[in-house]
Amino acid sequence: MCGIVGITSNKPVTSSIINSLRKLEYRGYDSAGIATLYNGLIDEVKCEGRVDNLEKNLVNKNLQGNVGIGHVRWATHGVPNQVNAHPHSSERVSIVHNGIIENSTLLKKHLIRKGHNFKSQTDTEVIVHLITEYLKKNDLQNSILKMLKRIHGSFALGIIFKDQPDLIVGARRGSPLAVGYGPKENYLGSDSYALKSMTNKISYLNDGEFCILRKDHVEFFDENGNKVNKKILELSSSEENYDKGDYKHFMEKEIEEQPITIKNCVNEYVDKANGDINIYNFPWKTDEVSSIVLVGCGTAFHSCLMAKYWFEQLTSLDVTTDIASEFRYRKNRFKKDTLYIFVSQSGETADTYAALDLCKKNGMKTCSVVNVVESSIARDSEFVLPIHCGPEIGVASTKAFLGQMLVLYLLCLKIGSIRKEIDRKTFLDKIKNLSLLSKLVKNTLTTETQIQAICNSFTDAKGSMFLGRGYSFPIALEGALKLKELAYIHAEGYPAGEMKHGPLALIEDGMPVVVLAPRDKYYKKTISNMQEVIARGAKVLLITNKSKDEVFSENIWEKIEVENISEDLLPFLITIPLQKLAYYTALKKGYDIDKPRNLAKSVTVE
Ligand code: AGP
C-alpha cells in the first residue's frame, strides 16, 4: 500500500512527480521521497510525513533532471522516518518499492559480507545493493533478471540508473504497476489514478514482467527476458472531479455523493422499460451454480455478509462468506458448482487478490464486484460487476460500501429471477423499490444535526457497541469499523441476540451503545436486547425507521429514525447515520478524516 510514480521526459520532472505523489497519498502517507538523475548524478530528497513536508524540503534544493521516481510510504519494515523513506539509493541506482521482500534478512547478511553498507531498516534497500552488485559484472537487463530471480515476496518497483540518462525500469510481482504514455514522455505508476492527470493511455504489467521506459518508447519483458507486446488501453478520459469541491474532506463529499452514486448505479443496471436487470453473459450457466462463496476484507467483507442474507432470503443457493486473509490459507473444499464472488473497492487488496488467484488456480467460477474496473482483481476475474461510484479517496469506505451492497443485491435479484426462485411480481416490486432508494438516502442524510449533538457522548467514550440482528448485523459491524478507523475508539459490532452470552459484561454505566432496530422481522427481539443493555446503564442510541407506532421502551437516550422502505433495503438507510456518527466524532476529536493513522486506502500487502 505504498504509491510509486516515475517519469522520463524531455523536460524537468520534479513538479509532475510531486503532483502525482499527491494523488497517491491515499495509498500511504507515513513518509515520501523523490530522486532524479541529472548530469550523471542521482540526487534524492525525502521526508517523514506527507508530501507537503517533501515540498518544504525541496525549497532549498533545486532538484533538476528529466528522469525521476517518487514514492509515498505505508511502513511495513522500519519506522516511518526520513531515513526509511523511499527512494533508496546507491551511487549507481535509486529504487522505489511497494510490497514486501520476504527474504530480505538473508540477502542483507549476504550483501553486508560483500561490503555493502545499509543506511535504513527497510527491506527495500536490499534490492538497491543487490542490483548494484550485479551491475559490477552484468549489463542492465541481466542485472534486472538476476535480481528478479533472487528476491522473494511481492513488489512493484521503479528504478533509475546513474549511467542510463533517460531510462526507468519497472517490475511487478503481486503489487500493481501501470505504464502511461505521454507526448515525448512516459510514466510508471502504482495505478491509473496516479497517471490519469497526465495521460489516459495505460498498459498494465502482469506478475513477473518488467519494463524499460524511455521518453520516446517503452519495452516489456517476461520473467525470462523475452519481449512482450502490451495492449494500450484508453481509460475513460472523464476526469471525474477528484478534488473535494466545497467539502472539508473527501469522506464528507463521498457520504453526500451517495444519492447520486446509488442513482447512477441503479440506472446502469436496471432496465426500467423492460423490467429487467442488465446483468448478462454470465460465463457459466446459472443452473451450474448451486452455492456461492463471497470473499472480501473490512468493509467489503461486510457487504459480503449483507449479501448472504439476501441470497438466503431470495434464492435456494447455499451461501457462505469469508474474510479473504482467512480464506486464502483455509483448506477450502473447491467444488465445480460453486461461484466465488470477490468484493473490493480498490480491486488491489492483496488478500482478496490472493483468494481470487487461489480459486482460479483451482478452476473455480469467479466474479468480482469492484469500483476500479482497471484493477488487478477486475482484470483477473471471469466476470466483473462495477459499482460505478467514481473514485473513493477517503480511506474510510462509504459510498463504495453502499455501491457494493447495491450491486450484490442486483446480482441476487438477477440470479434468483433466472433460477425462477423470485416470481415476476416480486422481481418488479423490488426493482421499483430500488428506484426510490436514491431519494430516501438523500432524505436520511439530513439527520446530521442530531448526530453532531450525539457525538459528544462518543468522543470521550472508552468503548462502544453496535448491536443488530439479521439484515442489521452486517451494518452493526460496519458502523463499529467506521468508529474504530476514524475516531480510534474501540467499538464492537455484535449480533444483538448474542450479548447475553458474554459481552453484556462489558456494559458499564453511561456506555454509549448503538442499537440498530428497524421495524423488520427482527424488531421485537432486538428491542428486548436493547432493554437488557439499558437496564445495565448503557446510553442507547436507537436507529430505527419512521413509524406511527411508538417504540415501546423507556430510557432510550437518543433515537434516529430513517425513512421507510422494504425491510431488505433498510440496511442502506441505517448505514447513513453510522457513517456520520464516525465522521463527526473524529472531527470533534481533531483527527485526520481522510487519512486516519496507521491505515491506507488500498492494502496491497499481506
Ligand atoms: C473500510 O473503511 C476500510 N478502509 C477497509 O476495511 C477496506 O474496506 C478494506 O481494506 C478492503 O478494501 P477494498 O474494498 O479496496 O478491497
Q: In brief, what are we looking at here?
A:
By secondary structure, this protein is an alpha/beta fold. The chain has 19 helices and 27 strands. It starts with a strand and ends in an 18-residue tail after the last helix.
Structure write-up:
With 606 residues, the chain is of the alpha/beta class. The chain folds into three domains: 3-234, Aminohydrolase, N-terminal nucleophile (Ntn) domain (Glutamine Phosphoribosylpyrophosphate, subunit 1, domain 1, 4-Layer Sandwich), CATH 3.60.20; 250-422, Rossmann fold; 445-591, Glucose-6-phosphate isomerase like protein, domain 1 (Rossmann fold, 3-Layer(aba) Sandwich), CATH 3.40.50. It contains 19 helices and 27 strands. Helix 3 (104-113) packs across helix 4 (124-135), helix 8 (258-269) runs antiparallel to helix 14 and helix 15 (448-454) crosses helix 19. The longest helix is centred in the C-terminal third of the chain and has 21 residues, at 424-444. The model has no long low-confidence stretch (mean pLDDT 93). 2-deoxy-2-amino glucitol-6-phosphate (AGP) binds next to helix 9.
